[in-house]
């Protein structure tokens, strides 16, 4: 019985839910973007392990700096949720 309670307690501690709320709305006029151009791509990610984090930054500014961009034209976000960890990445496309 003690083993069962221990296993049940560990299972409860390791389970959880992840929600993400963005505080801004991103609207891009894709009519002004020339998709024949070659874009540089920058990425910045933040990661969370269990209840610890976030570690890193997923800001547009950091992603643009990582790629050396002077003008950002398209912004994407990707989310990856795993059992014990999650990550949120911002991917920017633009010109240097």
Blueprint (SSEs and pairs):
Elements: H1 2-14, E1 40-49, E2 52-56, H2 60-67, E3 71-81, E4 85-95
Antiparallel strand pairs: 1-2, 1-4, 3-4
Structure description:
- It is a single chain.
- This protein is of the alpha+beta class and 96 residues long.
- It has a domain at 40-96.
- 22% of the residues lie in helices and 39% in strands.
- Strand 3 and strand 4 (85-95) form a beta hairpin.
> What is the CA-CA span between the terminal residues?
63 Å
Shape from CA axes? elongated
The percent range for strand residues is 35-45%
Number of strands: 4
The percent range for helix content is 10-25%
Biggest sheet, open or closed, and with what strands and sense?
Answer: 4 strands, antiparallel
How large is the count of helical segments? Answer: 2
The overall pLDDT average reads 79
Short structural summary:
This protein is an alpha+beta fold. It is built from two helices and four strands. Strands 2-1-4-3 form a four-stranded antiparallel beta sheet.
Task: For this entry, give a set of tags.
96 residues, 4-stranded antiparallel sheet, alpha+beta, single chain
């Amino acid at each position: 019985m003690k083993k069962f309670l221990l296993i049940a307690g560990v299972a409860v501690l390791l389970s959880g839910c992840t929600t993400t709320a963005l505080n801004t709305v991103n609207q891009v006029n894709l009519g002004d973007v020339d998709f024949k151009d070659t874009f540089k791509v920058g990425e910045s990610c933040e990661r969370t392990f269990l209840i610890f984090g976030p570690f890193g930054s997923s800001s547009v500014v950091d992603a643009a700096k990582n790629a050396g961009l002077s003008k950002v034209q398209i912004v994407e976000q990707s989310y990856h949720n795993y059992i014990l960890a999650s990550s949120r990445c911002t991917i920017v496309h633009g010109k240097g």
